[in-house]
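Hypothesis: this fold can be encoded by more than one sequence.
Test: take the structure tokens below, design a sequence, compare later.
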């Protein structure tokens, strides 16, 4: 084969192929190659700004994690359509970038100090009501972010939130709109109903009708196609007893983990901002005056409440709670870690202004003993070995299942047992047969027709299987005798409903001609749009009916209900609210309508951004 390729590369075939490539290069230009190479790392470009494939992968992983958290045990990753997931994630990233561009063009900004305060005051990052750096790291790591990435993401969210609030908050409505909406919302209606019941039991169904229905719907009356499969199962948990962790390895891991425990420092500060009302020199002079008061023995917390321009901590006496390294600005952190407990710093300059910093307390990390951590350490070390064993066993199962005529040999090689499922159809069953990958493999031509073993299927990160079809149960007609009762019930329901509708429409025609047919009317007075005890379909019909032209000339309509009954409706009157709206009611309606108008404005703004943007997807 290799010699043939070599020979052909010297002949007319190779020359023809090379000629075609040269022509394509001449027509499309070398730029196409370079552009393709430069875009290989990008997923999209929005108004010249790039969205990387890394960002897209992160967004897709985040969506997967969110689905897993929402669905819990019901989450089946095999059901995810990767193309739809990618399109959804990329669409969200493009939308996000457009909004960020809009926020920046509109001059919105969010300061680093405000970001710090937002993080410090977030309940999810606190322990006993105080910010905890270890808790912060744990939460954002579970989300898949580093500190820098999380801060960038949070800043972007705040900018988008400012933009949304800036547009949505400008929505307004007039007094006339408020009154018109309130009048409709508070309107009540007087009506009466005449019900023509669908009498299922009164409908006689003959054998001929049953036979015709059975023949016309033959596909509905067939047993589903089903399979019974055999499978062998690899579970990661089973490998833990096969590996060991030495004392030397456990001690090394213990020392590594306790070395990462960081000291926590509780800081308080007084901030005088620059760049606003005060120049830098004026702010420095002010903080020096405050420092003099501190040195004179004045209470730091009281001075913070009086002078500090940090709204997040001033009311707390400047208290920022406990935090570890990497939380504050470098200048602030350097000064804080140079202090002894109870000591107050000299004025410190940061990008936000001038600070006085007081160290309120130091919280040394509690170092757990080796014995208390040993089970966890042993589990972690073993997990690394188990992962390797599990990967090797999965590869062995893959190769053995491919080569073997059944699953007996792979099971023997790996010390596994061959298990058998109950019969299940293409909609799946219970246990492993509910997994979409298992269903797709079981009903694939390779397994169903060729009788092959499947490849290794990952049910979850800790469980993999290989399977084969043991029995194929093809669809077969269900005898008429087995479905006769259900056919009779179906025909009775449909014919009774049709008869009720026909009779009801006849009554409706008589009423509209001025006749008064016999029947027991059920009256409802002053019904609201959310009236209890009235079927939603009926209530919807009542409020869609035109207002009666005269008091003694009601309007009529009809509606079929879900149970087959037909209801003739007589609208007797429409009642407008008599009392004027109170100031509180008017304000509530105004707030609701303005919010809705603001949301519509923001939606229109987003559409405008999309319409005017230059967006390329790669």
């Amino acid at each position: 084969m290799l010699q043939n390729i070599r020979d052909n590369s010297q002949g007319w075939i190779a020359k023809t192929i090379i000629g075609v490539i040269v022509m394509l290069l001449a027509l499309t230009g070398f730029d196409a190659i370079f552009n393709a190479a430069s875009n290989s790392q990008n997923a999209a470009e929005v108004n010249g700004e790039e969205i990387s494939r890394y960002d897209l992968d992160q967004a897709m992983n985040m969506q997967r994690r969110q689905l897993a958290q929402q669905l819990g045990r019901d989450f089946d990753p095999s059901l995810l359509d990767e193309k739809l997931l990618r399109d959804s994630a990329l669409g969200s990233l493009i939308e996000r970038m457009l909004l960020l561009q809009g926020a920046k063009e509109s001059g919105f900004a969010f300061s680093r100090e405000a970001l710090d305060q937002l993080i410090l005051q977030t309940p999810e990052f606190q322990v006993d009501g105080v910010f905890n750096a270890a808790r912060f790291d744990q939460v954002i790591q579970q989300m898949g972010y580093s500190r820098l990435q999380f801060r960038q993401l949070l800043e972007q969210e705040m900018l988008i939130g400012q933009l949304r609030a800036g547009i949505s908050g400008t929505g307004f409505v007039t007094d006339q709109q408020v009154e018109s909406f309130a009048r409709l919302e508070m309107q009540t209606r007087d009506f009466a109903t005449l019900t023509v019941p669908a009498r299922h039991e009164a409908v006689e169904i003959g054998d001929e009708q049953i036979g015709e229905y059975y023949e016309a719907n033959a596909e509905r009356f067939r047993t589903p196609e089903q399979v019974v499969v055999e499978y062998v199962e690899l579970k990661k948990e089973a490998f833990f007893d096969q590996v060991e962790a030495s004392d030397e390895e456990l001690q090394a891991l213990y020392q590594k983990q306790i070395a990462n425990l960081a000291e926590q420092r509780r800081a308080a500060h007084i901030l005088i901002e620059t760049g606003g009302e005060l120049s830098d020199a004026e702010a420095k002079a002010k903080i020096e005056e405050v420092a003099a008061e501190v040195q004179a023995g004045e209470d730091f917390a009281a001075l913070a409440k009086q002078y500090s321009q940090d709204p997040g901590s001033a009311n707390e006496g400047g208290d920022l709670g406990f935090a570890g390294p990497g939380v504050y600005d470098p200048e602030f952190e350097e000064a804080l870690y140079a202090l002894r407990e109870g000591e107050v710093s000299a004025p410190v300059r940061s990008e936000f202004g001038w600070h006085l910093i007081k160290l309120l307390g130091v919280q040394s990390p509690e170092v757990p003993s080796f014995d208390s951590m040993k089970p966890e350490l042993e589990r972690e070390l073993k997990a690394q070995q188990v992962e390797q064993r599990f990967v090797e066993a999965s590869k062995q199962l893959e190769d053995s299942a491919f080569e073997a005529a059944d699953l007996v040999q792979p099971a023997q090689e790996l010390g596994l047992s061959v298990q058998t499922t109950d019969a299940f159809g293409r909609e799946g069953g219970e246990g492993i047969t509910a997994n979409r990958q298992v269903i797709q493999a079981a009903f694939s031509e390779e397994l169903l027709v060729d009788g092959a073993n499947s490849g290794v299927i990952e049910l979850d990160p800790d469980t993999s299987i290989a399977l084969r079809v043991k029995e194929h149960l093809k669809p077969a007609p269900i005898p008429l005798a087995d479905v006769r009762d259900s056919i009779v019930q179906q025909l009775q329901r449909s014919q009774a409903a049709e008869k009720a509708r026909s009779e009801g429409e006849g009554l409706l025609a008589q009423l509209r001609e001025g006749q008064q047919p016999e029947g027991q009317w059920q009256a409802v007075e002053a019904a609201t749009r959310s009236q209890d005890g009235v079927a939603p379909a009926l209530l919807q019909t009542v409020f869609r009916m035109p207002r009666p032209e005269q008091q003694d000339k009601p309007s009529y309509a009809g509606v079929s209900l879900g149970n087959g009954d037909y209801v003739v409706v007589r609208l007797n009157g429409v009642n407008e609210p008599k009392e004027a709206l109170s100031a509180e009611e008017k304000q509530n309606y105004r707030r609701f309508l303005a919010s809705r108008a603001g949301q519509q404005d923001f939606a229109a703004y987003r559409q405008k951004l999309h319409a005017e943007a230059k967006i390329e997807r790669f």
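The CA atoms of residues 23 and 383 lie 56 Å apart. Residues 226-244+373-473 form one domain.
Hypothesis status: open.
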